[in-house]
């Protein structure tokens, strides 16, 4: 749609782009510095085993501390980090900080780490994970890597070689945000995962929407049939917790059970 520069709408649009580019540059340069300093923090959110009613895992989640003490959420900087490649360093930072933090956790509690597709197929991830486990004396079975479905789309054999090598080390592999990507079932067929996490979009619709509840039950049943564990993400209410338990999810994560925090939290009472 052509607009003359005399049209005020056009100038506003220009100004918006300028502001967005400026904000983005600030994120890029600031984030690189934050990774070097301690301003990029790694927080932990519990995942609860519903049959044992206890925390089985903590998921590591990045938080960027600002000079005023507030935090920028990952939604704002992870996409930038993905584009610039900084996500590779953030991944290694989460691994290192996570393994350090684990020393204070109860025996058997696992660490779950988010990964970016950019970390795979470069010959860096597998040796870095192996070396970090060795250095901390942590058994590989105590960590899980969360992978999103888009890793498996259009990826070459080197990505699958990394997944195989991680599985051979004994590291758990979990599909994150399950249900939000394309042809999810085909992905399950192509690669054998240890578990999946059902995206919170489904969980949060369960109360009002019978279809979402049926989808969650079906995914949980499928996971059980092929020997995968199944985590419900984003559980915020007792009603949702009851529904995901009834649907057959063995694990749950969400604000009801514990928010992300700078230290692994105590046992939930829910
Ligand atoms: P994710 O891996 O799906 O992590 C779950 C997100 O849901 C987290 O958001 C968590 O704080 C949020 N959440 C947990 N329970 C609830 C709930 O009950 N209600 C609601 N509304 N939200 C809940 P967060 O920490 O903002 O992270 C967003 C995404 O950023 C993560 O989604 C993950 O994909 C990515 N991310 C975070 N840290 C890292 C990292 O170190 N590396 C990589 N590659 N990605 C990361
Ligand atoms: Mg995750
Ligand atoms: Mg998720
Ligand atoms: Mg998510």
Give the averaged pLDDT, no decimals. 91
Structural class: alpha/beta
Quaternary state of this entry equals single chain
Radius of gyration, rounded? 20 Å
Number of helices: 9
Give the helices and strands as they follow along the chain: HEEEHHEHEHEHEHHEHE
Named once each, the bound ligands are: ligand C2E, magnesium ion
Q: What amount of the residues lies in strands?
A: 15-25%
Distance between the termini: 55 Å
Main beta sheet: 8 strands, mixed, barrel
Name the poorly predicted regions.
none
Q: Tell me how many strands there are.
A: 9
What is the strand arrangement across the widest sheet? 1-2-4-5-6-7-8-9
GO molecular function, one term: phosphorelay sensor kinase activity
Main location: membrane
Protein name: Diguanylate cyclase (GGDEF) domain-containing protein
Subcellular location: Cell membrane
Topology:
Layout: H1 8-36, E1 40-49, E2 54-65, E3 71-72, H2 74-84, H3 87-102, E4 110-114, H4 125-136, E5 143-148, H5 157-169, E6 172-178, H6 184-190, E7 195-198, H7 200-205, H8 210-225, E8 229-232, H9 238-247, E9 251-252
Parallel strand pairs: 2-4, 4-5, 5-6, 6-7, 7-8, 8-9
Antiparallel strand pairs: 1-2, 1-9, 2-3
Helix pairs in contact: 1-2, 3-4, 4-5, 8-9
This protein binds ligand C2E and magnesium ion (3 copies).
The site of ligand C2E has 25 residues, from β2, α2, α3 and β6.
């Amino acid at each position: 749609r052509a607009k003359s520069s005399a049209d005020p709408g056009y100038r506003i649009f220009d100004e918006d782009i300028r502001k967005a580019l400026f904000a983005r540059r600030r994120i890029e340069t600031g984030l690189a510095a934050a990774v070097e300093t301690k301003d990029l923090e790694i927080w932990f959110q519990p995942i609860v085993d519903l049959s044992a009613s206890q925390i089985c895992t903590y998921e590591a989640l990045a938080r960027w501390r600002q000079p005023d003490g507030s935090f920028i959420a990952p939604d704002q900087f992870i996409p930038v980090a993905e584009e610039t490649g900084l996500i590779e360093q953030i991944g290694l930072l989460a691994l290192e900080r996570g393994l350090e933090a684990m020393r204070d956790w109860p025996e058997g509690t696992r660490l779950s780490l988010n990964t970016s597709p950019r970390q795979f197929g470069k010959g860096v991830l597998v040796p870095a994970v192996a070396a970090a486990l060795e250095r901390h004396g942590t058994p590989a079975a105590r960590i899980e890597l969360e992978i999103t479905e888009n890793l498996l789309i259009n990826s070459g054999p080197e990505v699958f070689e990394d997944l195989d090598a991680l599985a051979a080390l004994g590291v758990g592999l979990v599909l994150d945000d399950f249900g939000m990507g394309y042809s999810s079932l085909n992905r399950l067929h192509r690669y054998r995962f240890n578990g999946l996490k059902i995206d919170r979009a489904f969980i949060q619709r369960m109360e009002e929407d019978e279809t979402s509840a049926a989808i969650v039950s079906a995914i949980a049943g499928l996971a059980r049939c092929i020997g995968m564990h199944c985590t419900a993400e984003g559980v915020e209410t007792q009603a949702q917790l009851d529904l995901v338990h009834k649907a057959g999810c063995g694990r749950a994560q969400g604000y009801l059970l514990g928010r992300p925090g700078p230290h692994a939290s105590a046992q939930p009472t829910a």
